[in-house]
UniProtKB/TrEMBL annotation:
It comes from Favella ehrenbergii. Residues 1-151 form the Cilia- and flagella-associated protein 58 central coiled coil domain. Keywords: Coiled coil. This is Cilia- and flagella-associated protein 58 central coiled coil domain-containing protein. Residues 183-195 have a biased composition (Basic and acidic residues). GO terms for cellular component: cytoskeleton. Residues 183-206 are annotated as: Disordered. It comes from the Eukaryota. Pfam families: CFAP58_CC.
Amino acid sequence: MKERMKILQNEVDILQFESAEKDRDLVDIVQKKAKANAQRDKYRTESNREELKFRGKLSTIGQLINQGDKLNLIINSLQKEMNNLIYEYEHACESRNYMGIQLIDRNDELCILYEKSNIQENILKNGEQKIREKEEQIRMIELELKERQRQFKVVDKQVPEVPKLAEKVLELEEELNSKKMEVQELSEKLEDPKKHPNAVDLPGEDPDEEALLAKIHVLEERLNNKKEALLEKELVYEEVSNLAEKLRTQALDGRKTTLEVAEKINEYKARRTELSRKMLATVSELSMFQSKTLKLQQEKEEKEAVLEQ
């Protein structure tokens, strides 16, 4: 019985030990369960929090999607604007290139206009020079015509004086011969003073070389003056002889001379008329050149205004 009791007691102890173990296990399980419940609540809270975050993220994603759609619209609009800007830029580049080509062409045209303007200015200057030359020719012809008319009047007045002029020619010839003889004698006397009738030997010393050269220079000047006077008289004689011959010829054939002078006068008048006509033509041509020059100047100013714009 005691053994049985011991066995039972041992079994009771074992059972108590097992019960204690079970209690400890139960406590552990309860604690673990409590921890698990706490962890579950924590996870549930975190899940709710995460769900709220997820919903917030979903809302944010929706907003971002809406913003993305808006941004896509903005991007599409910007893309269109960029395409338009690219098109406008390309068009502007083409316009710039075209304007560059136009600028080069206008510059070339401007250079050509400058060249034409210079040519027209040169033509204008040449035309003015020709007009001045023609006017000078007309003036000279008019002077020559007046001189011819004066000579004609003088000849017409001097025709009755031909005998007097012939006597004058003879007197001038005699005077010329006399002057020639006088010059010849003076030359011989200068060459050999001993031939002079009043030559006397002067006392004193002979002058030195410089004094002799000075005297020779004075005598040469006197001789040259005499020669010049003689030459003038010869020229006067020749002119008077020619004039007398002309007057004699004109006196013999006065009608013919009058006719020739009249023809010359008519010829000079015709030449003056022709020169006047040429001068008028030159003036007309000059006016045309001036008109062209003004037109080219106006075109040049217009081109410069276009280039400045």
